[in-house]
Amino acid sequence: MPDFAEPLARLITEFKHLPGIGQKSAQRLAFHVLRAGREDAQRLAQALLDVKDKLGLCQVCNNISDSQICQYCRDEQRDQKMICVVEEPHNIIGIETTRQYQGLYHVLHGALSPLRAIGPEQLKIKSLVERIGAGRVEEVILATNPNVEGEATAVYLSKLLKPLGVKVTRIAMGIPVGSDLEFADEVTMWKSLEGRREL
Amino acid sequence: MPARVSEALVLRSYPLKEADLIVSVLTRDQGKLRGVAKRARRLKSAFGSGLERLSHVKMSYFQRENRELVNLDSCELIHSQFGLLSDYAASVALDFLAEVSEQLLPAAEANERFFRLLLAVLDHLRSQREAGLWRAVTYFAYWAVRLAGILPELHVCLRCGTWLDDPESPQRAFYSRTEAGLYCGHCRQPNSWELTIESRAMAREMARLPIEKAAPGVFTRDTAADLRRYLIQRIEDALERKLLTAPVLEAC
Ligand SMILES: [Zn+2]
Questions:
Q1: Interface residues on B facing A, Cβ-Cβ cutoff 8 A
Q2: Are strands B31-37 and B20-27 parallel, antiparallel or unpaired?
Q3: pLDDT by residue (tens digit) across A110-147?
Q4: Which of A90, B76, B80, B194 could connect to A187 by a Cys-Cys bridge, CB 3.0–4.6 Å?
């Protein structure tokens, strides 16, 4: 690494900690900040601090929120009878961009993984059971990731929630849109067949 | 960069950068290898569902000299364990198999018998489902300890040499965390547990028979639980750490 002045070297090192940022990109970003006005740098620094200081978890669904109750839980237009369960807050954004889902959410903050010492107590499962116990919910959509840990979590949750009298559904898994059946492996193909629907 | 293709079982994967994975695999011919799978977390990757835990695959990779990590190129799925996930206990059992294999096996040392053990146990789990779960876990634990070379002599008392398995008068036997072998009733240590005569007979059966023939009756969580506990202690003793998955499995 070339010899940069200490504050610049420190900024480059900090950028390098960000995901997907290597030495070259970190240098480019650092020089951009150096060239920018003081106010721009101030706004960036303040935005970073605000994310840490002003955001917390929604008391209902555990989504990231700047108030005690997040925008989705506050919105009375949304379907209060449906809860979509996701692993991480950013999964909500993927679902919201479809504009097809109008229900509520619940964020688990992870998936069950004995190999990583993550059991039911480490996830926001208790509050999910309490929400359903309150009685308004009719359907729970399990939208955990379509991998081993996400699937194990979905199976665990469905056993836990079904006795509470709610309909429990799992998002479909299968062939990605725009790909070719020829390249689908055994599991992908099987899951697609399993999740087929009548036209 | 010579390209290789090895039959392999995926043991574990860790996310790397935005879309890559570091994957630990047990190959039939090269032992345990670690590699980087580029873009494996993308929707349309060259690996499909092949990098999920304990997938049985044909793995194509490049091995560079003096490099600890190989470059995984693509894989072709032979058998997936995804079907077992409809049962949470089976899913934890898979985690247990993967953790023990990953922790117990040294890197880059071929161990074909261990590879075949995993295939046989996975096959048993897939065909017997819940009914085969505890048999599979116990059989695996027995052979994993044995193939790792850490199974002590189970026929004689560690202290006085009494033959414990005398068919005329079989002796009760006890084990403790601190000592690998067994003690007879006279020499038993404080803080020890019994390894019952039935469980020792089962261990002998597992030693000489394939999984589907060993202990063919009903096999529940309570069957040979003392043997399983003893074997897990041997594994934890060798690793000098506790297994994360063992208590989760027993609580299932
Ligand atoms: Zn909320």
A1: 12, 17-18, 43-44, 48-50, 52-53, 77, 80-83, 85-88, 91-92, 94-96, 98-99, 244-245, 248-249
A2: antiparallel
A3: 999 998 889 999 999 999 999 999 989 999 999 999 88
A4: B80
Determine the distance in angstroms separating the CA of B40 from the nearest CA of chain A, rounded to an integer.
12
Q: Who contacts B227 (Cβ-Cβ below 8 Å, separation ≥6)?
A: B138, B142, B195, B199, B200, B202, B203
Total residue count of chain B as it appears in this document = 252
Parallel/antiparallel/unpaired status of strands B31-37 and B69-79: parallel
Q: Exposed, middle or buried: residue A153 (CB in 10 Å: 0-12, 13-18, 19+)?
A: buried
Same domain, A186 and A93: yes
* Predicted local distance difference test score (pLDDT) of residue B2: 58
Question: Chain B: nearest CA to A163, how far in angstroms?
Answer: 16
- The whole-angstrom separation of Cα A195 and Cα A154 is 15
Considering the domain architecture, whether residues A98 and A161 belong to the same structural domain is answered as yes
SS3 state at B174? strand
Indicate the number of domains in chain A: 2
Provide the shortest C-alpha distance from residue B156 to chain A (in Å).
36
A80 torsion bin: left (phi>0), alpha (psi -120 to 50), beta (else): alpha
pLDDT tens digit sequence for B61-75? 998 877 789 999 999
Looking at residue A186, its pLDDT comes to 81
Contacts of B83 in chain A (CB under 8 A): 190
Cβ neighbours of B18 in A, within 8 Å: 19-20
Other beta carbons within 10 angstroms of residue A97's beta carbon come to 8
Tokens representing A84?
């979509």
Q: Which of A115, A151, A188 sits opposite B12 (nearest CB)?
A: A115
The confidence score (pLDDT) of residue A2 equals 67
Domain encompassing residue A20: 6-54
Report the pLDDT value the prediction gives residue B1, as an integer from 0 to 100: 53
- Whether B60 has a pLDDT exceeding 90, the answer reads yes
Residues 6+ apart with CB under 8 A from A177: none
- Residue A34 and residue A70 in one domain: no
Q: With a cut of 90, say whether residue B174 has pLDDT above it.
A: yes
The band of A94, judged by pLDDT with boundaries at 50, 70 and 90, is very high
| Mean pLDDT calculated for residue range A143-155 | 94
Inter-chain contact A115–B49, Cβ cutoff 8 Å? no
Residue A32: which CATH number? 1.10.8.420
